[in-house]
């Protein structure tokens, strides 16, 4: 290991230590967990170097303490913040315990007039949580009520429509109550908390205390973070993004902030711009590391250059060899590229490394489902429910298991359970949609997909599912739009273009359809092999009377057969027949004969016709 | 009995000495010359044609007399009153059973407290028609003196304690009885007072005693008996004071016509030269009180124009008549402008040192729709100079201001602070209840209405609170019941009337709502709200002409209310006069600018403004407005639908479809949104899938980006802010533009 690298690693170590302790002090548990996990997964270097570097850290308020109590640096942050006086510290202690006991309203009450940024963060955060909790409770009541009805409905023969009804009722309920609940949660006392109110206070404070930002950077960073979260909730992504950016430039070691940032962007071009900005903004080595993590996540969502990705991943794996998060990213990328085997292998490694980690295990169950490893899936389901039965991930795994066993009703029930536990799980909504499709309940499926895209408009599967479901319902205008959306998210996926093309074909826009098919053909890995696209293209060209091109594609179709290992599909038969007819018409009997002979499979009618043609041609040739 | 010491209409009842005994005592103990002027006056009684100028010396005399009384004699009836006992704690603690009269009497303040008069009710200052003198005066008087000795023993106990001031024993018997009667009246022992008063009257036949007996009757609520007593002896014809009392009783009996006969339809003392006679005793002029009573009667007879005039006159005659002022303001008899002009015209100089004080107090009660700076100045003055920051009325002024500005949550907080000092402050409670209703605080409404119902079952505000609670919980018929109960208890309680009308409006019963609102508008000519609501009802019914008329009426009363301006905007919008609509909505927007954006009115004004932009074809502005509404008020199906429509018109198909989807997600049965979505999707289909199509462009970007390895290094400079702006711009501008720009930029960088 060379010197700068060691230096970098120890720098990152101190940063992560600091961030983990600060974040858990300020109750951002998930971020703190991430930092701690990262710290745990780092490569080991000699303790001596790390020690000296500890005390080298400049801005950290820990510096003094590290010098004196260098042996127990992890304990010091408990009483950390620089500008907190005794009174404020006592206030913090009270608020912190109340927060831990989940008494959010009380916590906010006791911090009512605090001006310290960290205390203010705690106050507003607990206000927000209290609001969120109350909202969720009202939804949960609905969900549990629905659960019963949904299951009953599915038990019936006419379960489909009932399932749909219950979901729609759920939607209605939310829509009807949004006006009230979304706006404010109150105790019917006249004083209420609402997101705009919290935002107002936050903005006021931030604009008044701009100059203090440097002193208590963590506090301010978290305030900005909260602001971003609230703006996101208000559906003002641009403001949210700028808040997150300010937060990250003050304090980059806050992983949830990065993830929130990703969730604010919906299109790939936006992601490119964002990365560009971040590259310039965060230039220091320490924040570069976080940026690399961020890039990995962005890649998962929007794709990009795979080589870049691998490079970054390798670099990070060098520093964090035992970090489960990184491994998961690796597995996910394999999953996205449909390399299920290696993805599964990586997941196996992760389980060995950290057996009780349930995060992303639902993805693993998806992989197992696709690979049809039912027994392994069953084991995973048992294991997960042994770890924690009431985790959304566990429920998803079990749901996948039931789906693999073709017990779709049960599967849906478990997906519902997962959604009760975590209403923002997109994949659960999407998968539930798939289950409803299996049950031929398009309407319910549509509702599920819709929920999924409401939560996460970057989920191309949900958009695609929507398109398909509407296609089944013969509402092609709708399905066209949804396919367009999914295609915009995955412009390099030929399936999207194919779907789009067939949709255009159904609404008689032949030109567009041809364009889409050609695009799909371009994107196809071995374009000369994609018989179905070629055949569709030929047919479409025939429809617009471009016989020449049509013939070209037909020929390609037939040629493709030669390359494939003699597997003869329906399309090839039809193409051959068409070519035979075409050539016969143009008096090229030799070719026609050849093509007609080619028709060996297909319906009896087709074979009959081919034979007739062949006979005719032979006769003419002679 | 001294006839000369009569209160004229220029005096308050204070002008005559409060305690009978003292006066008589003085009469006897002091030189006969005291009686001389009064005797002289008595002589003038016969002169029926005496003019006002002649009465003046008499008045002056009486004033002197009363002044001397106050300085020389104690008012021991006052010291018996519980109020004074509190002040003189040392005296009352010793003997609670029979409160001892204090050694050092309360002086002039005590005199103020006991504004009771016994003698000198009849005088020459009366208009000639009313001057009828009862002949029984003198015999009664002598009889009283004759019986004096019999009563000596009864008063012994008291008299022993009054060491240095009065020797009760030396009083004549009738005087002792009068003292007794008076004291029991002060202690609210009406039956004793009635019993003794009756006896005194029977003994003396003195009209003064009759008057006092009537007072006792009035206090004990036997209004009919009081009237009978006063009219039987024609007292009401001969004394202003008695006339006032008779009229008051008749008002209490709701015999308004008769009361009006007694007080007269116009002020008989009106001075055409308007040179005011100064009242120096600091009390309220009887003339003013009479005017006030007249005003109340007119109000009860639904003649609000006259009522307003009378009340104004009452204040012009005597600024101290707060009740008249309160009636004018709280019953909304004056429009905001009139209120301000009227108070500016009042003459406060009579109050001497207190003129600024009282003026500020009055100003702080005026309408908060205009001259806010003056109100604030008055409030600050009262707080700084007089330390009144915790006074309920000052807080009420603040509360009112906040309520007018629709800052409900702040207002609620302040109300709660005020109610901590005074839990049942009836000045604060109506606003408090309205605030709770606005904010949906049904729990607190429940509590307060229960408390009120327990403690004040007969107060209109109680039932107003109950009605508001039911309104909040959406039990309309219950709410209506209680609102009507409140308005029956007090027909001049405007909030209850309007609440009552609202119950019909909520249920969509336009006809009934209109009749209720129009009653309210007749009752409360000073407030624009009933007219505004009337206009809104007509607007709902589609009768635009009538609606406009009512709105204009309301606009005349109060052109500052953003709600009214908003409604007028809506009206012109409906009349397809979008330019005018925009004008009014902009005005409303100006008015509401300073307000919190959470309030409902803020949202509706912005929505309406956005719609008129949409109609005027100012698409960009419309979009901006709609987005602002969505950002502040949360998602709403109609707003999203309208936004989708504007986008569709601007040919931004993607955005249009997005917002229409959002609209349908909230309300799947939104017909308009469905139609529009269908249209948008058709347009989407027709959009040629050429190289400019977003899909094509995005896929090109994607390809380029994955082929560009060094792209990041050559990236342009961009800071976070510009970035956010860009992204926002990306949302605002059409997809095509953005994509074009991006791809161009990317090409540019790749060339480098």
Automatic annotation (TrEMBL), chain A:
The lineage of its organism: Eukaryota, Fungi, Dikarya, Ascomycota, Saccharomycotina. It comes from Lachancea lanzarotensis. Keywords: Cell cycle, Cell division, Mitosis, Repeat, TPR repeat, Ubl conjugation pathway. Residues 12-331 form the Cdc23 domain. It comes from the Eukaryota. This is LALA0S05e09384g1_1. The keyword Repeat applies. The keyword Cell division applies. GO terms for cellular component: anaphase-promoting complex.
From TrEMBL, chain B:
GO terms for cellular component: anaphase-promoting complex; cytosol; pericentric heterochromatin. It holds the Pfam family TPR_7. Residues 734-745 have a biased composition (Acidic residues). One of its GO terms (molecular function) is ubiquitin protein ligase activity. Residues 27-77, 726-752 are annotated as: Disordered. The keyword Cell division applies. Keywords: Cell cycle, Cell division, Mitosis, Repeat, TPR repeat, Ubl conjugation pathway. GO terms for biological process: anaphase-promoting complex-dependent catabolic process; cell division; negative regulation of DNA-templated DNA replication initiation; positive regulation of mitotic metaphase/anaphase transition; protein ubiquitination. It comes from the Eukaryota. TPR repeats lie at residues 288-321, 460-493, 494-527, 637-670. Residues 27-65 have a biased composition (Polar residues). InterPro entries: TPR-like_helical_dom_sf, TPR_rpt. PANTHER family: CELL DIVISION CYCLE 16,23,27 (PTHR12558), CELL DIVISION CYCLE PROTEIN 16 HOMOLOG (PTHR12558:SF9). This is LALA0S04e10176g1_1. It comes from Lachancea lanzarotensis.
